[in-house]
Specification:
Helix content: under 10%
Number of helices: 0
Strand content: over 45%
Shape: globular
Structural class: mainly beta
Distance between the termini: 81 Å
Number of domains: 5
Number of strands: 92
Largest sheet: 8 strands, mixed
Radius of gyration: 34 Å
CATH topology of the largest domain: Methylamine Dehydrogenase, Chain H
């Protein structure tokens, strides 16, 4: 099976006969725009992902939804399949008719199938696993509703804020009369999948589905009557022009040659007749579009299009060139467009003739979009993503909700109240999407497909196994997600007994805490339910370990969504995760000194750090192709190589990268340079390239093999090796290469000197040589049960490391004779490892993973204070204190005191992750002293220099700094009644509890000025 690039156009929209847009997938998310009726199209890439749908309010303002993800497409003789990783819901917005787009990536990772809103605030979404979610604040927050089924819900419709229906697989029909608070399962009499629900008014509606089933209700969904639909067909869509006349389209089962079918009713669905013009060769009917009760089109597989101008009495067949039509849109009876894989079709004569237009498409995976007005809208999609805009889509913010699965439907009834639905059930928000909670769907519900809310109380949803539910109380109880508090995410030096704390969550009566050494929580160190407090003491934590923890709210038998997953490290851990800022697959890492290094990966990602990886900044590589390897000869000059013969070079540390011609389209997998001029690159089909002018020109060298070469390593300008399914050696700079006897499946090779070398690869194999490759001995044999090793690095002839799949890290201290596994703290694939010396190294891998280790070290240096400047005056009573970052620091501690000796502190804050902290409530007209220190796994460093500042004058109680009195003092005070303030001096000789109260002339208590422990003074 081979990986390929396919094009799919998912949606098309025209504002007028000239201007239109198409969106979809082609190696990522893409928008196409035409201003001449489709004669030419301008293509805009929106990054990696898939765009599923777009919606426009007018000719200027519109939105598109989909996913951002690493998407791989594989095709063989059986067809094509897709794989996704790092999936995130995404929304795009345009205010200029699609010329430019703004993008916002959400944190969700779930699919919702359908959504319905009844006003600006209230909406519902349904999806897989019986999911129903509701929002009452326009999508800012979502809460889960109980559907009572686990089957997929595929469509949802609300006629008002209370009354709605949802349908889905296995014949499920659910109805609500209270906005989704309660969903009632309505007997359908079938187990066939139901795909579409439509209502003409609050009483009359239809449902269509697999096997040609058609249902009708005339009493608001209280009962549904099954109507025979003719042949055994799967009905995908239904459309009614009025209460009597409607059409249903789909395809008939005739394995292995299904055919498209069109059914029409003229008696409100009491009976259906198959219409003429249904072509057996169609296989599937995918889409339909009617501009009125007379004129319409249907389209489907094999490029078939049928048109009617008499309400379906007769249909004329039109061919479009053999491609499946996935969507159509008409703006007049003559002018319309259709989308197919990788192309746009246009007609200007009502579908009689169609012309194929070049598209050049791309993708994203948001599934549903809803706007309550021209400003406020929401989008939902995979990975639980919910996006919200309040400026018509110019900017999008992520709505945190706790869901990790696909959201497929979203519906709002106001700018505040809304719902989203998908695999995780129902989410509800009452604050416009700022926060989201989970609503229960009841036992057995897994997938929800569509949701519609009529108002804040009444709505309907559909899901898998034909489940249809109705709520009349807005979905019932909503459980919101706790926010983790302490210890801070990625904290280091945590003790073996640690209290974990979180914020209280709405709707919760208790909490569920899990702690694990695995980020997937496959095994759990602690799994405790019924916690009534917002903290829990964890004891018995192992040293030198990384732990992950999460919390969810609970009430009775229902549980909300899990919080974010945070991690902490107990003292002594050797590998720590660094923040890369990307989810892309990272394939190579290289450092030139203890501070400066680079990492490269897929989609042209290049990252650079100048502080040992404390922070990583993206660089513009000039390519979107996957980069597989990199090599730097100094802090300025380096190269990266990748797919389709890509070679890029920088001479200024990565500030700018230029593409170099390689002369090949083979994937290049590794590069090595002996100096700034001479280097080699290897790759697929035995490719070996050499340059002697810094990469300006590359010449092929004969390898003698057509197998892939995965890595290359040189000791100098003449002696080198390349590995793959064989090991090749050269002693003349690559003019000739000789094969050495070795096992196959090797991914990387490293030599410490002309005699000692190592190679690792598939199935965890490790081989080594002590005679320059004359012979290779197997240290660790291949095993299908062992993780593949992808990279090896030695700092001398005895000390080395190897990394591989499933977070594998191995270390040797005896020249590779034996290897010991090290704890990485991750299950991600590790693709490259680089060590500067025996103690300092980095590893990179999948999902943007970067790990760093310093197996020995010293505490960080004292921070340098930044502001407010020393001896500043007139400073705010709530100042923000800042300092410069300290290399290697994980956190900082700040102390603020009225005493330069810090004998008593007014502020003592540890575990500060950033380089600033806002202090509040300081007394006015007072001199304050402050200092900061830094902490790393190797201890806490010295305090910074102490700085001071003086706050501005106050009209209340003020502290004065005098000599410490010998006894307690409280002089008489005679306030001037015409003065709004007075000074009450007092003194204490030692640390004491002080209380000062004011009473009026009648003995009535007016105010307590002080009631706390104070230092002497």
């Amino acid at each position: 099976m081979s990986e390929v690039s396919l094009a799919y156009i998912e949606d098309v929209h025209f504002m007028n006969e000239s201007t239109g847009l198409a969106v979809g997938y082609q190696s990522g998310a893409r928008v196409l725009r035409t201003t001449n009726g489709g004669q030419t199209w301008a293509s805009t890439s929106l990054g990696s992902g898939w765009i599923k749908e777009m919606h426009f309010l007018n000719e200027s303002m519109g939105w598109a939804v989909g996913i951002t993800a690493n998407i791989s497409v594989y095709c063989d003789e059986w067809g094509c399949s897709w794989s996704y990783s790092n999936l995130h819901s995404t929304v795009w917005k345009t205010t200029d008719g699609g010329s430019t787009w703004g993008q916002y990536v959400l944190s969700l990772a779930v699919w919702l199938e359908a959504v319905c809103f009844v006003d600006n605030n209230t909406g519902w979404a349904v999806g897989r696993n019986g999911t129903i979610i509701k929002t009452t604040d326009g999508g800012s927050s979502w809460s889960l509703q109980t559907s009572g089924v686990t089957s997929d819900l595929l469509s949802v419709k609300f006629v008002d804020s209370q009354k709605g229906w949802t349908i889905g697989k296995s014949g499920r029909i659910l109805q609500t009369t209270n906005g989704g608070t309660l969903w009632d399962l309505v007997a359908s009499g079938t187990t066939r999948d139901l795909g579409c629900v439509r209502f003409l008014d609050s009483q009359t509606g239809w449902i269509v589905g697999a096997g040609g089933v058609v249902f009708k209700t005339t009493n608001g969904g209280a009962a549904w009557q099954m109507i025979s639909g003719g042949p055994a067909v799967y009905l995908k869509s239904v459309h009614f022009a009025d209460s009597q006349t409607g059409w249903a389209i789909g395809w008939a089962s005739n394995y292995p040659n299904p055919y498209g079918t069109i059914l029409k009713t003229t008696n409100g669905g009491a009976s259906w007749a198959e219409q003429s013009g249904t072509a057996p060769e169609w296989q599937y009917i995918e889409s339909s579009f009617f501009i009125d009760a007379s004129t319409g089109w249907v389209a489907g597989g094999s490029g078939g299009i049928l048109k009617t101008t008499d309400g379906g009495s007769t249909w004329s067949s039109i061919s479009t060139g053999g491609k499946t039509i996935r969507g159509m849109h008409f703006i007049t009876a003559q002018t319309g467009w259709g989308v197919v894989s990788g192309a746009i079709l246009q007609t200007t004569n009502g579908g009689i003739n169609w012309s194929v237009q070049t598209s050049g498409t791309t993708q994203e995976d948001l599934q549903s979009l809803f706007f309550v007005d021209g400003s406020t809208g929401w989008a939902v999609g995979k990975s639980g993503k919910i996006l919200r805009t309040t400026d018509g889509g110019m900017h999008w913010t992520s709505c945190k909700n706790g869901s990790r699965n696909s959201l497929v439907s979203v519906s709002f009834v106001s700018a505040s109240v809304g719902w989203a639905a998908g695999n995780d059930g129902i989410l509800k928000t009452t604050d416009g999407g700022v926060t989201w909670g989970k609503q229960g769907t009841g036992p057995g519900v897994t997938y929800l497909n569509s949701l519609r809310m009529a108002d804040a109380s009444t709505g309907w949803m559909v899901g898998s196994y034909g489940a249809v539910f109705k709520t009349t109380d807005g979905g019932g109880v909503t459980l919101y997600t706790p926010n983790l508090r302490l210890p801070l995410d990625r904290s280091a030096n945590v003790l073996e007994s640690q209290t974990l704390s979180w914020s209280g969550a709405g709707g919760a009566s208790s909490y569920h805490l899990q702690i694990s050494t695995s980020p997937s929580f496959t095994t759990r160190f602690l799994d405790r339910t019924g916690i009534t407090d917002t903290s829990c003491l964890a004891t018995g934590l192992a040293r030198n370990s990384r732990y992950y923890w999460r919390v969810c709210s609970a009430k009775s038998s229902e549980e909300g969504f899990w919080s974010d997953v945070w991690s902490f490290e107990t003292f002594g851990i050797s590998w720590r995760e660094q923040t890369s800022g990307t989810y892309q697959w990272l394939s190579g890492v290289h450092f030139v000194d203890a501070s400066t290094g680079w990492a490269v990966g897929w989609q042209g990602v290049v990252l650079k750090t100048t502080n040992a990886g404390t922070t990583w900044a993206p660089q513009s590589s000039g390519t979107t192709r996957n980069l597989q390897s990199l090599f730097f000869v100094d802090a300025s000059t380096g190269w990266a190589v990748g797919d389709l013969g890509t070679i890029i070079k920088t001479t200024n540390g990565g500030t700018a990268w230029t593409v170099q011609p390689s002369g090949t389209t083979q994937d290049l997998l590794s590069a090595w340079f002996a100096d700034a001029s001479t280097g080699w690159a290897v790759g697929d089909q035995g490719t070996i390239l050499k340059s002697t002018d810094g990469g300006a020109n590359w010449l092929p060298q004969g390898s003698g093999t057509t197998s892939s070469l995965n890595a290359v390593h040189f000791l100098d300008a003449v002696n080198g090796w390349a590995v793959g399914w064989t090991i090749l050696k050269t002693t003349n700079g690559g003019n000739t290469w000789a094969e050495q006897s070795s096992p196959g499946g090797l991914y990387t090779i490293e030599f410490a000197n002309p005699r000692k070398g190592w190679a690792v690869g598939y199935g965890g194999i490790i081989v080594r040589t002590t005679n320059g490759g004359g012979s290779w001995s197997v240290v660790q044999s291949q095993s299908y049960a062992d993780p593949t090793l992808n990279s090896v690095c030695f700092t001398d002839s005895t000390t080395g490391w190897s990394v591989g799949n499933e977070g594998m890290i191995l270390r040797t201290g005896d020249g590779g004779a034996t290897w010991q596994e090290r704890t990485s703290g991750t299950s991600d694939y590790l693709n490259s490892v680089f060590f500067l010396n025996d103690s300092t190294g980095w590893a990179v891998g999948s999902s943007g993973t970067i790990l760093a280790t310093t197996t020995s070290g010293t505490p960080p240096t004292a921070p340098v204070l930044a502001g407010p400047a020393d001896n500043s005056t007139g400073v705010s009573w709530s100042p923000t204190l800042s300092w410069n970052p300290t290399p290697g620091a994980d956190s900082y501690r700040l102390q603020v005191s009225k005493y330069s000796s810090f004998i008593v502190t007014d502020v003592d804050r540890a575990g500060i992750a950033g380089t600033s902290y806002s202090v509040s409530g300081l007394a006015g007209n007072t001199t304050w002293y402050w200092h900061v220190n830094a902490t790393s796994p190797w201890g806490t460093g010295d305090w910074s220099t102490t700085w001071s500042f003086r706050t501005g004058a106050a009209n209340g109680i003020q502290n004065t700094e005098e000599a410490i009195p010998a006894s307690h003092e409280l002089p008489q005070n005679f306030p001037n009644p015409f003065n709004p303030s007075t000074l009450i001096p007092f003194g204490i000789p030692r640390l004491s509890h002080v209380r000062i109260e004011i009473f009026d002339a009648f003995g009535q208590h007016v105010r307590t000025l002080v009631n706390k422990q104070l230092p002497p003074g």
